[in-house]
Amino acid sequence: MKVGYLGPNGTFSEQAVLNYSKIYSDVELIQFPTIRGVLDAVENSIVDEGVVPFENSIEGVVTTTIDGLIFDDKKLYIKSEVVIGISQNLLVRSDYNGEKIERIISHPQGIAQCDKFLRENFKDTLCEAVSSTGEGARIVSESREFLASISPKRSAEIYGLKILKENIQDDSSNQTRFVVVTNESPKSLLGDKTSIVFTTDHKPGELYKILDIFAIWDINMTKIESRPMKHKLGTYCFFIDVEAENKDDLRDALKMVERKTSFFRLLGSYTRVY
C-alpha cells in the first residue's frame, strides 16, 4: 500500500499520515511538495491513497483540497478522516539570541491560525507563505538571516531549531481534519459521516428546498461549504457533511436530493480513524 502526504517531514500532515498508516501492516509513505501534488498522485495511481488537510477549526476549509475533490476531471473520493490537535510554535535557529526577526515563514494556514499572536508581538514583521509548516522550518534552519517559522515541535527536532514560544495559535483547542482520498468510489452509506457535493438551479429558495429534505428525514447536517463554480461570478456549488443513524432514511434523502439538484455527487461515506 502506497500512501502520499504533504512533505517535508515535521509537518502536521506527517503526524496525520503516521497515525493513519497504523491500520496497515505493510505501507510505504511517499512525500509530495504540495497538496495538489498528493491529489495528482492519487488521480494518476502513483499512490493508492493520499492524506491531505481538509479544514482547520480556526481557519476553516483548505481550498486546494476541497476544490480538488469537487472540480477535478478524474474523480476523487473520501475514504476516511483523521483529526489531530494542532499546537503551533515559533521556531528560530539554535544560535538566536534576541536579534530582530526579519521574516516569519509558514504555511498560509499556520500564519492565519496565529493571527492574534502575530499582531500583538510582530505587527511590523513580514510573514511569508510557503508550501508547508515543515518547509518553513527547513528554510529557517538553512538561512543566514534571523528568521522564524510557525511549525510543529517535531520540526524543531528535525531541523535543530529552538522553540522561542510554544502554543501560539489563537485557540488552545485548535484541530485540523485530514481526509484520506482514493480513486475508489464509495460502495455503501455505512460510514459515520457522508459527504456530498451538488449545485442547484439559480432560482429563489432552491437551496432551502434541499436543506429541508435533511430536516424532514431527521438527518444531522454537520457542515456546509459553498465554493464558486469558477466559470461565472455568483454561481456556486455546495459541499455538505451529514450524519444519520438510520441509513435507509439517509439513502432515501440523498435520492431526493439528487432528483432536486442540477448536479449531484456522493464523495464518500466514511469513519474517522484517529
TrEMBL record:
Q: The ACT domain covers which part of the protein?
A: 195-274
Q: Which GO terms describe its cellular component?
A: cytoplasm
Q: Which InterPro entries match?
A: ACT-like_dom_sf, ACT_dom, Preph_deHydtase, Preph_deHydtase_CS
GO process annotations (BP): L-phenylalanine biosynthetic process
- The superkingdom of the source organism is Bacteria
Its Enzyme Commission number?
Answer: 4.2.1.51
- Looking at the keywords, is Iron present? no
| Keyword Cell wall biogenesis/degradation carried by entry | no
Q: Name one GO molecular function term.
A: prephenate dehydratase activity
Q: Which residues form a coiled coil?
A: none
Q: Name the residues that span the membrane.
A: none
Domain Prephenate dehydratase, residue spans: 2-183
**Entries under Pfam families matching the protein:** PDT
Q: What PANTHER family does the record tag this protein with? A: PREPHENATE DEHYDRATASE P PROTEIN, PREPHENATE DEHYDRATASE-RELATED
Q: What is this protein called?
A: Prephenate dehydratase
Organism source for this protein?
A: Candidatus Fimicola merdigallinarum
**Gene label:** pheA
